[in-house]
Amino acid sequence: MDGPNDPPIGKVFNDPIHGHIELHPLLVKIIDTPQFQRLRNIKQLGGTYYVFPGASHNRFEHSIGVGYLAGKLAKSLKEKQPELNINDRDVLCVQIAGLCHDLGHGPFSHLFDGMFIPEVHKDLPIKWKHEKASLDMLKHLITVNNLNLVRKKKKKKELLRPVDLFFIEELIFGKRTDPDHPKKQLEYKGRKPEKYFLYEIVSNKRNGIDVDKWDYFARDCHHLGMKNNFDHDRFIKFARVCKVDGEMQICTREKEVGNLYDFFHTRNCLHRIAYQHKVKNIVETMITEAFVLANPYLQFQGSGGKMFTMSTAIEDMVAYTKLTDNVFEQILFSTSVDLGKASVHLGKASVHLGKGSVHLCKASVDLSKASKDLAEASNDLGKARKILTNILRRRLYKCVGQFYSAKEINNIEAIRMRLADGQDNPAAARRNIVSTRHKVAARRNIAVRRNIAARRRKLNKFNLTSDDFIVKVIKMDYGMKERNPIDEVRFYSKREPNTAFKISGDQVSTLIPDHFQEWLLQVYCKKTNKKSLETARKCFKRWCHTRNRDVNTTELEANEGPNPT
Questions:
Q1: Collapsing DSSP states into helix, strand and coil, what is residue 7?
Q2: Alpha helices by DSSP H, 393-465
Q3: In sequence order, which residues have a C-beta less than 8 Å from that of residue 103 and are 6 or more positions away?
Q4: How far apart are alpha carbons 164 and 90 in whole angstroms?
Q5: Of the chain's two ends, which shows fewer C-beta atoms within 10 Å, N or C?
Q6: What ranges in 126-272 are assigned the alpha helix state H?
Q7: Residues 390-399: pLDDT tens digits?
Q8: Residue 30 in contact with residue 144, Cβ under 8 Å?
Q9: Do 175 and 167 contact (CB within 8 A), yes or no?
Q10: Residue 76: which of 182, 266, 183, 234 has the closest Cα?
C-alpha cells in the first residue's frame, strides 16, 4: 500500500478499442476526481442510445482514449524527428488536453450545448460551447482537489510550469479572441511558432484530422456495429512535421491520401447513419422540450450554497458538476417540486406574518403568488414527465419526410407555416359544415348548435397548425463547410521527406466528390394519429413539389410504420 508521501504511479487501462494503455501519473490524478468521474454518466452519443442499443458508451472512456492517442502521436513525432525538440512536458500537456477536452459536456452531450442552451438562452451575445465549460471545469478540478500540477521547484521535472496550463487551455479551446475586437484572434502564447504543430493534435483547426476524431470514429463504429475504414495507427506511422509556407505542420506520405478520404467518408457515414438518424433527432428534440419545461424548477446547489437551474449551472462549476444524464430520471420520477420562485414568496409571507396584522395583507399576496408558482411548476413538470414517459413507451413524434439539398435551407418558421397551409383547405370544409340553414336552426335549436360544435371539434382534431410541425435543418459536410479538407493537408514523398506539397482531388481519382456540403431537412409531426399523419405527409409532399422536389414515395411510406430501432 502506498504511503501518503509516495509519488503517484501510473495505471494500465484495458480499453476495448486501444487495448492495454498506460497513462502518466498526473493523468491518473485527474481521472480520480469527482469532476472527471462525472463523465461516466454522460452518454457519448446522447439520444442515439434510444435507437442503437449498443451505443451505451460514455464520455469517460472516450476522454481516456483521446488522452492516450494524443500522447502516442506526440511521442511518435518526438522519436522520429528529434530536431523538433519535443520534450516530455510537451507530450504531457498534449495528453492532459486530450484527456480533459470534454470535461464541459452537459447531459446527453451535444444535446445540452447544441439544443437546450440555445433554446433557454436565446439572448446570449456569444454562443456558449462545451469547450468553454471544459476550461472552467479543469480549473475547478485542479483547485478543489488540490492537484499540485504546477511545479514550485526546478527539481520536480514531472510537474508543469504555469505557461503549460495556458498551453493546455489553448489546445482545448483554440486561439483566444481580442476582448476589444471579438472577431480578431490572438496568437498562441503557450508555445512558440516552431511548435505550433502541437496544436493540431487534439483539436485540428487546420483540416480537422485530430486524435479526438480518431477515437470517436473507432469507438462509435465499434458500439454502433459499423465498420471504420480509417486506420489511425497507419496515420501515426507516416505522420511527419514539415515546414509549409514558413509554418511547421503535421504532414503525411503521399500514398496516404486515399486513407484520408476514407477518414472523411467515415465521418459522413456516421452522420448519415447514426448522428443524424431521424428517430435519434426526434428523441433529442423531445428530451430538450422536457428539459426546457423542467428547467425553472430543478435546483442544483453551487458555490456558497447558491441555487442554480440547469441553464444557469453553466456559470458555476460546483453546480455544473451535478448535471449528468441522470437529470432525465430526476424529472421522470419527480413526485414533488422544488419550490423555486414559490419559496421566495413563502419566505416573504412568513416574514410579514411574523410582523403582525399590519402585514397580513402583504402576506396574503405573497401566499397567493406562491400558490400560483406551485401550480405552474406542477403543470410544467407534469408535461415534462409525460414527454419523457412517451419516449420510454416509444410514443414519439413521427417523421413525415426528409430530403437532402445542395442549397442552404433557411427560415424554418416560414417552412412550418407553408406546411400547415398545404392542407385540403380546412377553412372551406368548416364553412360547408355551417351552412346558412344550420345557422338559422342554431339560433332556435340548442341541439343543432351542439351538433355543429361537435363536428367542428372533430374536424379541428385532424387540422394541423404550424405548431404541430417540427422542422430540423442539419448541415452535412466534411468538416470545413463547402471546402475540401484534403486541400488543407500537405504530403511528403519517400525521396524528399522534408518537402511538403499539396495533392488535388483530380490527382487521386475521378470519383472524388465535387461538393463537400449539403443540407438535410427532416419534418416531424407531433400529432401521431393516423389521420393527422396522413395529412402531414400530404402537406410535406405538396411543399416539396413547390420546391420542384421529387420526393421518394418509398421513403414516405417507410415513415408510416413504427419507429425503427
A1: coil
A2: 412-421, 426-433, 436-444, 446-462
A3: 35, 36, 39, 63, 133, 134, 137, 138, 141
A4: 8
A5: N
A6: 130-144, 162-173, 211-224, 232-238, 257-270
A7: 999 999 999 9
A8: no
A9: no
A10: 234
pLDDT class of 150 with cuts at 50, 70, 90: confident
pLDDT in tens, 257-277: 989 998 999 999 999 999 999
Of these residues, 24, 105, 130, 277, which one is catalytic? 130
261 in Cβ contact with 279 (< 8 Å): no
**First CA to last CA across the chain, in angstroms?**
48
10 Å CB burial of residue 432 (0-12, 13-18, 19+) is exposed
Residues 500-525 pLDDT 10s: 999 987 787 767 777 889 999 999 99
Rounded CA-CA distance 9/22 in Å is 10
Is residue 201 scored above 90 in pLDDT? yes
Hey, what's the cell of 182?
471579438
Task: Determine whether 130 is an active site residue.
Answer: yes
Answer whether 261's CB lies under 8 Å from 39's CB: no
Contact 485, 209 (CB under 8 A): yes
Q: How confident is the model at residue 551 (pLDDT cuts 50, 70, 90)?
A: very low
Strand ordering across the sheet containing 517-525: 398-405, 517-525, 469-477
Per-residue pLDDT at 540 exceeds 50: yes
Q: Residue 370 pLDDT > 80, yes or no?
A: no
Mean of pLDDT values over 128-147: 94
Q: 73, 204 in Cβ contact below 8 A?
A: no
Structure confidence by residue, pLDDT tens digits, 291-347: 999 999 999 999 999 999 999 999 999 999 999 999 999 999 987 554 444 454 445
The vertex-130 CA angle with 471 and 487, nearest 5°, equals 80
Per the CB < 8 A criterion, the answer to whether 279 and 562 are in contact is no
Angle at Cα 31 formed by Cα 30 and Cα 34, nearest 5°?
A: 90
Amino acid identity, position 99:
L
Mean pLDDT score, 437-452: 55
* Integer CA distances (angstroms), 254 to 74, 322, 347, 483, 534, in order: 21, 48, 71, 20, 54
Q: Give phi and psi for 405, each to the nearest 5.
A: -130, 140
Number of Cβ within a 10 Å radius of residue 343? 15
Q: How confident is the model at residue 445 (pLDDT cuts 50, 70, 90)?
A: low
Phi and psi at 400, nearest 5°, equal -105, -5
CA–CA distance, 302 with 293 (Å, rounded to integer): 21
